[in-house]
Design goal:
The protein is mainly alpha-helical. The protein has helices at residues 3-37, 44-52, 65-72, 79-87, 91-100, 108-117, 121-130, 138-146, 151-166, 174-187, 193-207, 211-222.
Length: 230
């Protein structure tokens, strides 16, 4: 490439960067306005209660879910806005992001990225409720997550499974049902209480789908002498 070509390429790259920055700036301003509005929803008692229970965020205004849903209703689903909100290490921003992310624009790779970046059980459960369970690849996402070594990733997976099973959905392939039960049995013996609870919740909903699922769950639980729990 000659000098003129390199120069044009550099200018073109800078123009594209400036265009992207100009497009994102209004979104950043909107995020700033949203963050400022959290002060009106502040609930110090709730925030302190969360801290006392070990649920700690960088910033936590203690806003209730109904109030956050009302706030989300003022906006159209917006991929860019949701991404910018998710970047903020603020409880309410994370939750709003799960409410505003358009499901059709939320890829599997991005879903895995968000689950990796989630540090609290609360956000994991809310994300599963607002977003993950409604994705066309939700079953695949859940199966991928329960097979990971990280406890938070596995908690995500079982939470998604529980919501899918509660709606009567189940893995179509026998091997996938067996893999779910295998991972659930392992989780039920884990020292992590939250993980055990999420796994049991998923298993109990799975067993309620139909007689076959009930029998498969019952047989799997026999290996850890928990079959009488169903």
């Amino acid at each position: 490439m000659n000098a003129t070509g390199r120069l044009n390429g550099r200018y073109g790259s800078n123009e594209k960067k400036m265009k992207n920055e100009n497009e994102i700036q209004p979104v950043k301003e909107r995020v700033k306005e949203i963050k400022q509005s959290f002060r009106l929803l502040m609930n110090g008692v709730t925030a302190q209660s969360m801290r006392d229970k070990g649920v700690d965020y960088h910033i936590n205004w203690g806003a209730s879910l109904p109030h956050l849903r009302e706030m989300a209703a003022e906006y159209q689903p917006d991929h860019t806005l949701a991404l910018e909100l998710w970047k903020e290490n603020v409880r309410e921003c994370k939750i709003l992001a799960t409410m505003l992310m358009p499901k059709e624009e939320f890829t599997l790779d991005l879903a895995l990225q968000w689950t990796e970046q989630t540090q609290t059980q609360e956000v994991a459960e809310i994300a599963a409720m607002n977003l993950y369970q409604h994705l066309p690849y939700a079953m695949k996402l859940a199966l991928t997550l329960v097979g990971k070594a990280d406890s938070m990733a596995r908690l995500h997976g079982f939470t998604i499974f529980a919501r899918l099973f509660a709606k009567g959905q189940q893995p179509e392939a026998t091997r996938h049902r067996q893999e779910f039960l295998k991972q659930a049995i392992e989780a039920l013996q884990n020292d992590n209480i939250a993980l055990r609870h999420s796994a049991w919740n998923a298993v109990s909903h799975f067993a309620e789908i139909d007689n076959l699922c009930y029998t498969e769950a019952k047989n799997a639980l026999k290996s850890i002498k928990m079959e009488d729990w169903l």
